[in-house]
Amino acid sequence: MCHVIVTCRSMLWTLLSIVAAFSELIAFLSTDWLVGFPRTPDAVFSPHGATAAGEAYRPTLGIYGRCIRLPHLRRGVLCGPYAVHFGEIASGFWQATSIFLAAGILLLCAVAFISVFTMCFQSIMKKSIFNVCGLLQAIAGLFLIMGLMLYPAGWGSDKVQLYCGPDAAPYQLGLCSMGWAFYTALGGTVLTFICAVFSAQAEIATSSDKVQEEIEEGKSLICLL
């Protein structure tokens, strides 16, 4: 018989696990890892027939994508991948970053999916599903840390110097500034380790004496604060 067990700690762990997975995924797909130095697009043709200079803007560069402003486009900003193939990513360090982040995100998404069903299933192959998921989250966190540590080592690539100036070098930003995507990925990594630790509390909450008493009473829906 399936017992639906809902506790505050287990629900909080599930919610945080989903938030961690989505924050890392959104950060990985974003082009706002680096914000380039201000620049002015080439002169553009105005509706009145005169030639005018475009407004200054700051392009952004992601691990495999970028956003730039093109004068001939009506919408102005063009965002998309600069690397069509894996080998075209700016540097070997960023390729390694992509692998580590992708591995970590894959594990986090798997845990987030499984966490939704922990209300009905608390064990898998006689192992606590919370402990298994907590271990996977810890491994994912290590992958994410490796990716974030390697990422600044690729700042010396030719691609980054186009956006950040010739002074850009490994672990030196040059004229660029960090975008929100890096901080989101960093926050998601911290949250991943919090979830890994908090999974033990979710396990304790769903296997407490109160839960066992309500199961023995024949209840199929158990909600505890």
Automatic annotation (TrEMBL):
The processes (GO biological process) annotated in the record are:
single fertilization
Which stretches are transmembrane? 12-31, 93-117, 129-151, 180-200
Query: Where in the cell is the protein located?
Result: Membrane
What is the recorded membrane topology of this protein?
Answer: Multi-pass membrane protein
- InterPro entries, alphabetized: LHFPL
- Supply the alphabetized keyword list: Fertilization, Membrane, Transmembrane, Transmembrane helix
Query: Cellular component GO terms, alphabetically?
Result: membrane
Similarity section = Belongs to the LHFP family.
Protein name as it appears in the record: Lipoma HMGIC fusion partner-like 2 protein
Source species, please? Cirrhinus molitorella (mud carp)
